[in-house]
Amino acid sequence: MKNQQIDPEKMTRQQYREWQKQQQIQENPEPPLDDVSEPTPLQPRQTVKKAQAQQLAEEKTARLKRRLNWAILGLSLAIIVVYLILFFVG
Prior knowledge:
By secondary structure, the protein is an all-alpha fold. About 70% of the residues lie in helices and about 0% in strands.
């Protein structure tokens, strides 16, 4: 059955997947990059990029935390001032 030509409309899922794999092997005889077990020169660069992106995200988070803390403090002080004004004026 493997050598026979199968109508693509009457294939089972498994047969279709096998047919797709065979088509990919025929089109791309070289192995995909994911299957290569040896480290490539790009992998350390990718690791460095990921580390830099993570560090940048942490810095942005810390900066945002500081800004939010100051905003909360400012709003709390503004609420206190408004209550004092209303208490002494009213």
